[in-house]
Amino acid sequence: MADTTSAEWSAAPKIYVENVRNGDAAYHISEEAVLKSLISVSSPAALTCRFSDERDIEAFKAADILIASRLDTAFIASEGRTLKLIQCTSAGVEKYAPFTWLAQSTMLTNASGVHTKKVSEFGLMATLMLHNRVPAIATRQRNHEWSRQLRGTAAGLRVMIYGVGALGGAIARSLHRAGFFVTGVRRAGKSIEGGKLMITPDRVLQELPNVDVLILACPLTPETQRVIGLRELSALPRGAGVVNVGRGGIMDHSAHVSCLASGHLSGAILDVFDEEPLPDDSPLWDAPNLMVFPHVSADAPDDYIERCLAILAENLKRARAGESLRNKVDPTLGY
Amino acid sequence: MADTTSAEWSAAPKIYVENVRNGDAAYHISEEAVLKSLISVSSPAALTCRFSDERDIEAFKAADILIASRLDTAFIASEGRTLKLIQCTSAGVEKYAPFTWLAQSTMLTNASGVHTKKVSEFGLMATLMLHNRVPAIATRQRNHEWSRQLRGTAAGLRVMIYGVGALGGAIARSLHRAGFFVTGVRRAGKSIEGGKLMITPDRVLQELPNVDVLILACPLTPETQRVIGLRELSALPRGAGVVNVGRGGIMDHSAHVSCLASGHLSGAILDVFDEEPLPDDSPLWDAPNLMVFPHVSADAPDDYIERCLAILAENLKRARAGESLRNKVDPTLGY
């Protein structure tokens, strides 16, 4: 089913770019980058590039396309009613739910899949680290404690990936290539490359006893909110490890810390948290055998925005051809 | 050149096994394991299995073959003069140098190559960890410090492996497969599988500026003692990382710590130290961006001794066929 009719996309688009002042340079969307990415598609009829604290309201109101890393949903609801497309440069859009602010005639696309190579490397590294008990070794180092516990090779390690979209799917492929047994969890249960066993979320609890490393890589939606809690973590075998590269809200962190403290779980590598930066007084900083990563698993600085803009360029081509768009967020599913 | 003549090996051997009391179970050499490993080669004429603190001196004196994880060189020099072969179950034998205690008629073999799969996984993990600045992230976690520094993918990373014998050679293959550019350092400079560039030790200094991760995997010999010092570490580009899975004595640790403290090096993963366990008051425990691993990179517990004994079994076959032995230590080279 096409998302659009080609006729409404035939004219050169008016584009509005909104950046966050003092944001990370890796996420800055420059005029040049936009023009360069659209070179094979179309010259924009207008291109306005502003920080969010000095908006050009007239240009915003006239725009067909908004490109932004952070969405001011109230402002869009009031002044962006004629937008045809919003390209958000983050992959997760859970903070904008519910999507009542989004006009029926506006499509929202996200940056899902922009850094599959990066996250697949991170997933492999984190899995090897958990297998080799690196979080426990790091915790012991704080206490000058030498404890030599040998670990075998990781061959045949059993990994469950909760959510096998762009992030989880890329991790599945790299772990499969590394010789691990990958179980993928997916709403549809459909097979993916690298997934030896595919299950639907309702079967997770019964499969968890067969899992050495659980990797959370799903979006945060009403369905996945705190979906991994004490019951799920307790169902993992003693010595299992957990990686979270999805969103903090997927997990019950206090249940997680108690499973680490009791020794039921051997380690954790968390890259996402309920609040980021993780507050200084969070108990997670000092939790035993837990490593805090500062949300770095999936973003590479070199070409992040270029890859986001490539999605937009491809979508403009698709729109003109009357085809459905890539990375379109479904407001009812929330991703 | 054959190490031996087949005639002296035709009789069933008398074997003496020496274990260390209260040693790690993974290194215990049991009678059953010896018998099982030799099943296709020969039944021993005698098999004596003792802890080192309750020796059977008569059996020791009569033995042809000694299997031991720790060598009591003075005792061997006085009571083991008729030994034909000593199978040491550690890979590094530097602590037994110089080899003046070893009779001309006794061959010494080591466990080199027993865990190439294990160390190749560790090398890949450590390289990805340094690329992703995990040692710095772990150091910051101690201070509850969130600092988001994005890193690109590791593709094309330039890794120098100092010593490409059994350990380093296995790491070279796995890093090459992962898409990294591997430079191997080898006395002979001969090519190895996975090594894009092979150099001799005298060229190391000029190549270090082109290296992102330096992995030390050589044996400790008079030639390699403190071979990586301030001059070598300073020749690495800013932001480089260092892994040591060889021996502590290869490195100048105080030069290393000062290069980490100054920020010239981004991180270190050390698995071997001058003294092990690392003493409680060692400055390495708290050095910034340095991770202390308790000598776990190359030993897997599941089948360590079985694999050592497989070397012995193969060597018995070779000896009978008048062929040269695997893993024979050259007393002049020290490995």
Provide an overview of this structure:
With 335 residues, chain A is an alpha/beta fold. In chain A, 28% of the residues lie in helices and 16% in strands. Chain A folds into 2 domains: 6-114 and 300-320, Rossmann fold (3-Layer(aba) Sandwich); 116-292, 3-Layer(aba) Sandwich (Rossmann fold). Chain A has helices at 31-37, 57-62, 73-79, 116-131, 134-142, 166-177, 204-207, 230-235, 253-261, 304-320, and strands at residues 14-19, 46-51, 65-68, 85-88, 107-109, 158-162, 181-185, 197-199, 213-216, 240-244, 265-270, 290-292. In chain A, the strands form 2 sheets. A 7-stranded parallel beta sheet of chain A has the order 8-7-6-9-10-11-12. A 5-stranded parallel beta sheet of chain A has the order 2-1-3-4-5. In chain A, strand 6, helix 6 (166-177) and strand 7 form a beta-alpha-beta unit. The mean pLDDT of chain A is 94. Chains A and B meet through helix 4 and helix 5 of A and helix 4 and helix 5 of B.
